[in-house]
Amino acid sequence: MTVGDYNLAKRVFRDLMWAMSVNRRADDASRPMIYQLMIRTFGNNCETRTPHGTLAQNGCGKFADLTGAALTSLKQMGFTHLWLTGVLEQASGTAYPNRPADDPDILKGIAGSPYAIKDYFDVCPDYAVDPDQRLVEFKDLLDRCKCHGFKVIIDFVPNHVSRAYASDVRPDLSFGEEDDRSVFFRRDNHFFYLQAQHAGGGAPLKLPTAGRPGCDARFAPESSCGRVSGNNVVSWEPAIHDWYETVKLNYGHDFTTGRQTSHLPGPAAAPEEVPKTWRTMDEILGYWQAMGVDGFRADMAHMVPMEFWRWVVKRCRTRNPHVLFIAEAYDNDPAKLTDGQVLDALIDAGFDAVYDDPIYDMLKGIYQSVKWANDMDPLTFTGKRFHKSLRYSENHDEVRLANPQVWGGHGMKVGKPVSAVLFSMGRGPAMLYHGQEVGEPATGEKGFAGDDARTSIYDYGSMPEFSKWVNGGKFDGGRLSDEQKNLRAWYAKLIHTTQARAFTAGQFYGLNHANKQNPAFGRINDEIASGHWIYAFLRRESKSGQAFLVVANLHGTETLRGVKIRIPPDAQLFLGRTGDAIWTFSDRLDSTWTGTIDCGTLEHEGLALPDLAPCSAMLLEIGA
Questions:
Q1: pLDDT at 148 over 50
Q2: Do residues 543 and 612 share a domain?
Q3: Suppose 459 and one of 32, 38, 109, 384 were both cysteines; which one would form an S-S bond, judging by CB atoms 3.0 to 4.6 Å apart?
Q4: Residue 334 burial by CB count (10 A; 0-12/13-18/19+): exposed, middle or buried?
């Protein structure tokens, strides 16, 4: 071990001991801290990375790669939940003795999309050392995760399935087996069936795959009887950007008639009273709950009727009152099945948390368009949703922070202020995507998706920077640079610190509005208002009195000097410290800085901070 490694380890240990002691002092109520990973890339040690490469060429991670060493390291970082993304069996171009490859016309990438599920009761054979024993190996992984104190989340993809869907595990519950295919819609059909009058010139189904290797733009099972594509496209000829590889599921509501779904059954309905797809999905969720899965991330939840969610979440909670439901949903999608704010509707339907895409987009807009940090303020007045939001700065659908094409091209350091803001502002879950903690940039073409600044979910391959942490299966970061080791340690500190009660149970009070006219609030160049690159807010929990001031410099190259943050009387009342003459502020994130101020100067002069380096943040615990 080098002197640098020793000093880093000593600092990490000191910081983590402080964070854990804060949590014990405050009788902490923890919140989910989620580590999202794809088995395919997590433990893959093969570093050929041939674009469009096969499994034999580029390798594939296995369930067995989540070893005790890997899980211990993730637990030490502070994670409570693992989201095992894409474990369900999907349509794939890889063949096995007891599982043939799927038609390339219905695949995106050789590995296939993890959101084109082929059997809801099975897992992907790619991830097993012995493909015929894949469910046994998955159960073993669940047991290892439990032994290390993790709760496990998997995907639930309710809106669509692969065109090749056929369950081997539960053939009696295969979608579409008893459908009436002569009609577009019937309440108890699983699918919507294309009719002669629909767009695209009638049968056969014509896929946008002509000219690709092995493709003829046809899928034999739909040569005469076509189905609506997963993104609600009612056409015999879906386009290349449609979800052409999937088919839309029917929840007893004809989506072409509008969003009115009040005709559907209520949450207390008996199984025999609900549409057939509801019953099938309840069987699926119950199957995975019985296996030991603790929660579900529901894909595109806004495209499914709210009545179904009320019914099925209630049933899942009778099996496990603590089952976690998180919704991926977007209120600006015309396909949403409510006229109101769909994120609120999903929370009312029983979800524990919903994606906070609006604040994520606003932060990205500060770097990629003309947004200011101040523009986040209106998004903090969203009622109970504010504290029931899953916050993330990366996930499998979004671009990598460290990619030079996006986020201002500032590299891995941009994740610090962005994640500090997102992880600190609410009581809901926070999530980190594997590779983010070591600055994985996702550069270059991987395969189906091209060079799109994302780690491909469609192709076989490994992540160049993340592989340095995996380090041949040691999971010790032995090949990481000092910068990467420091970044990973920084994320660990952020995760542990934001498990303090001020963050898990406290309220939010924004300070940007009170500082817009404050010339010492991070202005640069000739700005005549404040709040472009700096964001500041308070968190306080009333029972313990624990409080923090969070401040982030979002600028990628400018050091903000002479910053002073005004804390107005209402904010002082919020903090419950109006009788304290002297206040102290101590950074618990990235420095040992401590400052003091007389409360009388907080409103007009403000708290003077040290220089704020580019892409930095401070979590300042407030004491008397």
A1: yes
A2: yes
A3: 109
A4: exposed
Residues facing residue 227 across a β-bridge: 193
For 201, other C-beta atoms within 10 Å of its C-beta total: 11
Per-residue confidence (pLDDT) for residue 28, from 0 to 100: 43
3-state SS of the chain: helix, strand, coil percent to 5? 35, 15, 50
pTM: 0.95
Task: Tell me, yes or no, whether 409 and 493 share the same domain.
Answer: yes
Phi, psi of 359 (to 5 degrees): -70, -35
Give yes or no for a contact between 156 and 86, defined as CB atoms under 8 angstroms apart.
Answer: no
| Helices (H) then strands (E): counts for the chain | 14, 20
Range of the domain at 510: 506-623
Residue 27 has pLDDT above 50, yes or no: no
Write down which residue in 248, 268, 284 finishes a domain: 248
Residues 196, 155 share a domain = no
The Cα–Cα gap between 565 and 477 comes to 38
- State residue 29's pLDDT score: 54
Q: Report the C-alpha gap between 433 and 436 in whole angstroms.
A: 6
Residue with tokens 């472009």: 532
Domain presence at residue 171? no
Number of domains making up the chain: 3
- Cα–Cα–Cα angle for 463, 469, 474, nearest 5°? 120
Sequence-ordered alpha helix ranges (H) in 78-194 = 134-147
pLDDT in tens, 481-502: 999 999 999 999 999 999 999 9
**Mean pLDDT, range 226-254, rounded to an integer:** 98
Mean pLDDT over 94-109 rounds to: 96
| Closest listed residue to residue 561, CA positions, set 509, 521, 589 | 521
pLDDT at 11 over 80: no
Give 382's pLDDT tier (boundaries 50, 70, 90). very high
